[in-house]
Amino acid sequence: MTRYNNKAPPSPAVLRGVSVVSVAASPSSFSLPHNLCLRRHCRSLEYDFSFLKPLYKVERERNHPKQGPSSDFQGLRFSFSTMAILGLIKRVTRITVNNSRVRVYPVRYFQRKDLSSTNLFNGEDAAKLPVLIVGAGPIFRELDGLAEEIERSQPPVDLWRKFIYCTSLSGSTLGTVDHMQPQDFEKVVSPASVAHFSQYKLTNLLLKRLEDLGFHVRGSKESDGLEADSVVARQILMGHECVGIDANKDSITATVSFLKGGKHMKRNIQCSLLVGADGAGSAVRKLTVIEMRGERDLQKLVSVHFMSRELGEYLISNRPGMLFFIFNTDGIGVLVAHDLLQGEFVLQMCKMLIFNLVGHELSDLDVADIKPWVMHAEVAEKFMCCENRVILAGDAAHRFPPAGGFGMNTGIQDAHNLAWKIAALVQGSANSSILKTYETERRPIALSNTSLSVQNFRAAMSVPSALGLDPTVANSGRAQLSESLLNESNPLGNQRLSRLKSIFEGGKSLQLQFPAEDLGFRYLEGAIVPDNESEAGDPEVPSGRRRDYVPCAEPGSRLPHMYVKILSDSTREVIVSTLDLVSTEKVEFLLIISPLQESYELAHATFKVAKEFMASVKVCVVWPSSDDGLERKSNSALAPWENYVDVMEVKKQNGEGTSWWSICKMSERGSILVRPDQHIAWRAKSGITLDPTLHMRDVFTIILGKQ
User: Which residues contact 477 (CB under 8 A, 6 or more apart)?
Assistant: First the structure.
């Protein structure tokens, strides 16, 4: 047996949430009107065995000074932790609730000898679980209506689309960069658009959604802690911490600490898998002695979260923007304008320096929180340990400089990748070896995004360097930032301002959006079937510059987005994204085909093989937008099938647009098999020549790790 113990006493600064089976939105100090104090003195322990949709917790990271940033340059400050293993797992488990005790009996779980030779489900203890998740994180489109509510509630885009470089908020402007392009609003490559929304507001939205779904949120003061007789479904308990992990070949035992009557209490929870998604200062990572590799101590900073409607009104009228980079003799700082309408900001300086950076005193300054932090760019040496029973995800597995939002995006990608694999293992359709593909697929992406985030951070440093400052030395040469020197009439000042102009116009400063990396990343090996026509070689080396996303249908790529009309619903016109055709409620593969006889034969074979593997498949028949009367033909051809959908391509109003198969760079005889995480598992660009049943049996064998 391997034993990992946290011998230090529990500290509010490092508490993390412990999520059992699924993850819900993170509760916090509900009365706090700011985001830096969210989850300051509490973390959550929650039980949920019935929520059917993937869900991630939005969490305010309460970091130790050496654990990571407290403010995101994007304004949306998220500390990802995971994971909705989730609706998917709950769909394949049976639940019995009796006298406030919950017993979990996963369907076919005992068929997995290597991960199920245990007495976890003998009914003796409700705390014995198939999956224990420490921490949680954010998700949007999977919560019905949440993305739309964020779009409605966020500030107008003209108030946050720009980065402004200045001597003070009321002083001279050194340069302005607009990071929004027309295509960012057209939803051409994704059904979701960019948003700027404060985390505490998002947390409140998530909490409200959870309560609407029947969850009961208990604050740390009202909770009795993790007691055997008080464990009930659909509860979120605050103030619990994972302080120890014991591992053997059959199971994991987590020691959970909580307060009761002013005393620290402990209880053991046994599980088959433990997912550590508990942030940049991950207790799970430390308890299992997994090292981080990369660049440490890139910068040491202090963040101050404050409110001032006076300042908000001034900036709305004079220079609206999202980020303000301020350089003067009294201080250097970056101001993140979360919501100008409410006067909500994060600034990396303290009170008197705030006035110097603003350019005048503020009569209504309300400092909410001050916190030091250290910027790192690191990736865990491995994402799994203890015979693949302990798995890291999100910030626990990788931590980046905050510019660009790479932490949240990479973390959500981790969650999508891992959730369906664990659920497939629990339901019996996959072998335990499928878990290894999580690290195989995700760690290279984390390394690439680490490099990209460092490139972006160094681009941000090009501005102070152009001003004659040494970004690595605090307070160095600030006299060079005087207004008398930094103006066009001064030869040296004019030279430096010209250099700044060249940086801004050339797009060489800090970048906000990275669509190519956020949407265009591709898995080269893992739970996929590469084809001979895929492009060889490693992905393009990150440059730190914005590159547009180019849709791709190669195995390992994200399914391209295209709006389609559902023909099967005769009562009303329903238009969705191709991404929405992938189920979020269960482990289900999506086979996309054309209305051709050979494609129908492939679909029949796929249904047959999926049944052999105890897997679920839905068939999507894509009809060209130019065809008429095809719904009737499809209904006739597909009548024997229960799980299918007919869709038709949606052209733009001007009639322009590219067909689905052209976007995918495939012929109409092609077919695509999509994984539950919306990534392409297999494709045939122009049909298959082998026996379709034998071929698809080989495909599912590779994807589900049953070689």
Answer: 468, 469, 470
